């Protein structure tokens, strides 16, 4: 799984096709979408237009609560592959646990079966809390390979990351740049960026990578797409990581994250 990829929410089909084609041309190989985004057709069109061999690409999508059953998961996977024009998925995720429906364990069982068939290479979840993961492990014995969660320097999710590390689950960060916030204006990030000759966004993305996370920033700007992927020729030192980590609002800051016990499409 590539360490950095392209997020595609909230691009529509037309914009997604254009951005995905440009991103792949810049070197992106991981593309993240979802049924709820409504742009899987555009993502597929962009991948085809880019002309890169399928085996070089890593395509992730996610299914919503209407598919939380063993049969529903298979149907969702087939429909996503049809929309994107693919004959397999690299990674398929349960988008939200929707625990009030009490069906996410059935959805996970469906994913486990689907992986055995070979149509999906890897399986995981998105927005699952440790308590949700505990239930999956207790009732199925199968560990998700990835958990995609909201994560940025102010919302460090230390408890979730530690849980993932104990169980061998990859932490994937969505909204890694604190979308809709002034995160990139934080003085500590601006200072490190100036000292490094980098952009604030590059510093934050490198922070995610240095924590061991996979990260999927979204941009429609060719300049920012190029900047976002140009983060593999440096690493932050311990002092810089600690300084950025100091922005974490701790357990109290969890309130800033969408609560997957009550939210989920």
Write a structural description.
This protein is α/β, with parallel strands linked by helices and 265 residues long. It has a domain of 184 residues: Alpha-Beta Barrel (TIM Barrel). Helices cover 44% and strands 14% of the residues. The chain has 11 helices and 8 strands. It has an 8-stranded parallel beta sheet with strand order 1-2-3-4-5-6-7-8. α5 links the parallel β5 and β6. α1 crosses α9 and α3 packs across α4. The two termini are 26 Å apart.
Short note summarizing the structure:
The chain is α/β, with parallel strands linked by helices.
Task: Itemize the secondary structure elements and their pairings.
Blueprint: E1 6-7, H1 13-26, E2 30-32, H2 40-50, E3 58-63, H3 70-84, E4 89-94, H4 104-117, E5 120-126, H5 130-140, E6 146-150, H6 158-167, E7 170-174, H7 187-196, H8 200-210, E8 214-215, H9 222-229, H10 238-245, H11 250-253
Parallel strand pairs: 1-2, 2-3, 3-4, 4-5, 5-6, 6-7, 7-8
Helix pairs in contact: 1-2, 1-9, 3-4, 4-5, 7-8
